[in-house]
Write a structure and sequence with these properties.
By secondary structure, the protein is an alpha+beta fold. It has two domains: about 240 residues, Protein Transport Mog1p, Chain A, CATH 3.40.1000.10; about 50 residues, no CATH class. The protein is about 25% helix and about 35% strand. Strands 3-4-5-9-8-7-6 form a seven-stranded antiparallel beta sheet, with helices on both faces. The longest helix is centred in the C-terminal third of the chain and has 23 residues. The chain starts with 5 loop residues before the first helix and ends with a strand. The N terminus is likely disordered.
Length: about 300
């Protein structure tokens, strides 16, 4: 398979080893607004570039987009004429661990079969989870991968799209980043080397724009719901893991309506109008009295 160049390797290293991070996990309600984007027609790829993002690499086999604060990245990687049968999960694991070399401990899990891209016969969406040591200690990276393959007579073409972020940044990105990543498509004259094999790729610029428009329609019709559902599930899992590690959970203050962190130890927590808290191991505990009725229970 074709490997990413040293430039892409450097961009990935910056994501993995960058010093960007949040002091505390963001609230589950803290979904960032979708940034402004520009439609870019590059030499090989057509893609949307968000504000405060940059192009790290573009070649015939790979595209790498990176947030300027080093908190997230989009990678598209494809091959053609690979001399063995592939399935989507196998291709994703092989690329992530052996070719992109994101991390030796990368976990590629929960493959869910989905409708493949036009020109491919099988596809799956998978969870990605790995860690790397950085200047300020280990960094955990999470995200989603979309893997598409077509295998005929022992020969395979395949493409994988990755949406990755530091785990502290993922909750604010997962509502839009996967869908944006799926809108990056190789519209060059020889996508992933397939032209020399199949002769089915349009070379004309107008046809390229038409093909890209059709791809966007396909993406929106077939992927938005699937990706959003998987991203939300991953976010909930990350929150559960955070509760186990910190002993706290995000809950809504019954007086202010804002999200706050509460201890997971008590069975029940009551909040007073003046900000006091009354935790108890007894789930039936109720601090309200006729002379002090201004207590409300935190609903977890």
């Amino acid at each position: 398979m074709i490997r990413l160049s040293a430039v892409a390797g450097l961009s990935l290293a910056l994501l993995l080893n960058g010093s960007v991070g949040l002091a505390q996990p963001p609230s589950p309600d803290a979904a960032a607004a979708v940034p402004q984007t520009r439609l870019i027609q590059g030499q090989n790829f057509t893609y949307l570039l968000p504000a405060q993002w940059r192009l790290a690499e573009e070649g015939n086999h790979a595209l790498v987009l990176q947030a300027q604060d080093l908190s997230a990245a989009v990678i598209v990687y494809g091959v053609s004429g690979f001399a063995q049968d592939l399935d989507p999960a196998r291709f994703a694991h092989d690329v992530i661990t052996n070719h992109l070399r994101l991390s030796p401990n990368a976990q590629v899990s929960n493959p869910t079969p989905v409708r493949p891209l036009p020109g491919y016969t099988a596809a799956a969406i998978l969870d990605i989870n790995y860690s790397r040591d950085g200047p300020q200690g280990p960094k955990r990276i999470v995200g989603l991968a979309l893997s598409n393959v077509v295998s005929v007579y022992g020969r395979s073409d395949a493409v994988m799209t990755l949406a990755l972020a530091l785990d502290t940044a993922w909750p604010s990105l997962r509502s839009w980043l996967p869908q944006l990543a799926l809108q990056a498509v190789n519209t060059g004259p020889n996508p992933f080397g397939r032209t020399s094999v199949s002769g089915n790729i349009q070379r004309d610029g107008v046809r390229r724009r038409e093909a890209y428009g059709q791809y966007l329609e396909w993406s929106q019709a077939n992927w938005a719901g699937v990706v959003a559902q998987r991203a939300a599930s991953a976010d909930r899992q990350a929150q559960d893991r955070g509760e186990t590690l910190t002993g706290q959970y995000w809950g809504r203050n019954p007086y202010t309506g804002t999200q706050e962190r509460f201890s997971t130890t008590p069975s029940v927590i009551w909040v007073h109008r003046d900000g006091r808290q009354a935790p108890s191991a007894d789930p039936s505990f109720d601090p309200r009295t006729p002379t002090d009725p201004d207590w409300r229970r935190v609903v977890r």
